[in-house]
Amino acid sequence: MWNAGTNENVSELILHAQEDERKRISRDLHDVVSQALVAISMNLEALNQPATADTKAFKTKVAATRRLVLQTIDTVHRFARELRPTMLDELGLLPTLKSYLKDFANRTGLQVDFHADAGAEDLDDDRKTVVFRIAQESLTNVAKHAQASRVKFSIRKIKDTICVAIADNGKSFNRDSMGSARKKKRLGLLGMSERARLVGGIFAIEAQPVKGTTVRVMIPFKAAAATMLLKPARKMESVRSSPTLVRC
Question: Domain boundaries in the chain?
Answer without folding.
Answer: 1-248
